[in-house]
Amino acid sequence: MNRRMLIGTAAALALSATTAFAQSGGKPMKITLNFLAAAPNAGFMMAKQLGLYEKAGINLTIEEGKGSGTTAQMVATGQTDIGFADAPAAMQLRTKGAPVKIVAPILQTNGFAIISLEEAGIASPKDLLGKRVAVQPGTAQTTLLEAILSTNQIDKSKLTVINIDPGAFVGALLEKQVDAILGGADFHSIQIRERGFKVRDLFYRDVGVPTVGLSIIARDDRIKADADLFKKFVEASLQGWDAARKNPNAAADAVVAQFPAVKKAQIMAQFDVVNKLLCAPGATA
Question: Quick one: residue 97, left, alpha or beta (phi over 0 = left, psi -120 to 50 = alpha)?
Fold first, then answer.
């Protein structure tokens, strides 16, 4: 085979590889969400619906998560390419030596709250003394409980902390098996209000534990191996989030299209809270 034929063959193989890449929708990547598909993570579904990842050369798979702590751990152990998790969950792993990095914060603050029924009379963290508090293992809300107790000078032994499965979390509060839950005002509180109950949210940021909210995270080595790919992912995601912020109705449709079990009405209600978290009060940008 002469040189001209070799060059021609190489060019044909390169073209074939490029075509196959384009037909596949780009380089495969997987993002694991913080929790179930909902308004707090809708920007990614919006970006995918708009074809922004495909345009960036990324074939993205979106999977639901089981709590920010679990998602951050999956990133640290290489079980997913990208995670969407609350910043404190990633920070905690980082302090323990895990190669996890916050690439881009999405929510400037979060909807973490001590959630109770108004009739319980829990108006401050100190009102938790002698009460039963439900938590979900693996979530950032649970991780930050110690910070709330320390900041408010509360002895943990003076309250009862109960681990509750996610599926029974809200029900435990409504059935008065517990007095309060540590959850999300943008998720759990909305479910409770939809059932006709009056809810009181004590936001973490208002009781001495302000933190950055949900953020895009990844492993150090994967970022270093293909920094341009992660840059493209972030750019596409931010465009998707901007579109979701401007048109929550379309974003809700995008979530339902990709996760049919989700109720659109609930997503729309969540956006009333989420849009306030995207830009925190007093933020300059």
Answer: left
